[in-house]
Amino acid sequence: MKSQVFFTPYTTYDPTALSAIAKKLFEKVVEAEAFAFAEEVPIKVTFGEKGNTTFLGPDCFEGIIDALEERGVKTRFMDSNVLYRGSRTTREKHLETAKEHGFTRLPITIADGHHGEETYEVPIQGTYYDSVILGKAYEPFRQFVVLAHFKGHSQAGFGGAMKQLAMGFASRSGKMAQHAGIRPWVRESKCITCGTCLDYCDHGAITIGEYAAIDPQKCVGCAACIAGCPTGAIVNDWSGENFIEKLAEYAYGAQKDRQMIYVNYLLNITELCDCVGEPLEIIADNIGVLASSDGVAIDKACLDLLQASEGSTLFEDGRTALKHAAKLGMGSLDYELIEV
Question: Tens-digit pLDDT profile for the chain (340 aa)?
């Protein structure tokens, strides 16, 4: 049976109009799935890196918040800390950035704590993982509304609903596992032996001599030391293999045993993702908004629409993630696109 993906074409960027469209599509999914809401259903969003100008602002999401509140459903914004050094590396900075970007209507929860230390594991039967490591605050909830900006990504091909699950639900250590599966290392020339990293490491893996040193036998790969280092001396190796398939397995683990409503905004399409802290060039025309209960189908529909619109194979590498996720049973590659 094909998954249903609801779609409204929209070629400009008017947050008020987008809010109304998203609400309408959200209601279509609720009706189609006979969705019975829990007392509280969080909204998974990305707040955008400071300096980025093409991330989706909170005004685009007002209609969906209204739809939940009209049903008496409590909600909040949720995300987890990023792995790289930026404006969302720790909870304090993350909250500050979210509020600067206008996300003030709802409470905000950073799911993996101050610097990624609050986690839990979900067992899966994947090719690369037996379990995935997610932010602890996600654990109590069985339903989510996942709002994603569909755009490019340097390693994943594209970022959409699946990336919102894989990176957005993962703790810092989960992100580390997807990107590299190794431990952080120290650039000796940048280390000032200040000892700040010792305060961030809960596992006694770091010692200070002529420079900081990380014991690979004790390091658990949580990457908290990266968040704490004031000079950027502690870094990741981004050369891990099979990143796209690993992302698919994390997406599968994040939605396992949960009900999700996905809304993808196929607008402000850039080559790189919203984690880049600078203005990005828009590389394709705006297409519209999509909604579904199937995270694989909605991302595939976005990619198909984009490539058909542009007459190209833009972001084609991302199909690897779609195929791997479908193989795991996360969702379907076959969908019915229903224009609303």
Answer: 899 999 999 999 999 999 999 999 999 999 999 999 999 999 999 999 999 999 999 999 999 999 999 999 999 999 999 877 788 989 999 999 999 999 999 999 999 999 889 999 999 999 999 999 999 999 999 999 999 999 999 888 999 999 999 999 999 889 988 876 556 889 999 999 999 999 888 789 999 999 999 998 888 767 778 878 999 899 876 656 799 999 999 999 999 999 999 999 999 999 999 888 899 999 999 999 999 999 999 999 999 999 999 999 999 999 999 999 999 999 999 999 999 9
Measured distance CA(182)–CA(226) in Å, rounded: 13
The CATH architecture one would assign to domain 183-235 is: 2-Layer Sandwich (3.30)
Which tokens go with 76?
């909040």
Q: Class for domain 3-178+241-332, per CATH?
A: alpha beta
Name residues whose C-beta falls within 8 Å of residue 4's C-beta, 6 or more positions apart in sequence.
Answer: 29, 32, 292, 293, 294, 297, 335, 336, 338
Q: Domain ranges in the chain?
A: 3-178+241-332, 183-235
Contacts for 27-35: CB closer than 8 Å, 24+ residues apart: 27/67, 28/291, 28/338, 28/340, 29/4, 29/261, 29/291, 29/292, 29/293, 30/67, 30/261, 32/4, 32/6, 32/293, 33/259, 33/261, 33/293, 35/259, 35/261, 35/293
What angle do the packed helices 295-310 and 319-328 form, to 10 degrees?
160
* Per-residue three-class SS string for 8-24: EECCCCCHHHHHHHHHH
* pTM for the full predicted model: 0.87
Those residues with Cβ within 8 angstroms of residue 70's Cβ, 6 or more apart along the chain or in another chain: none
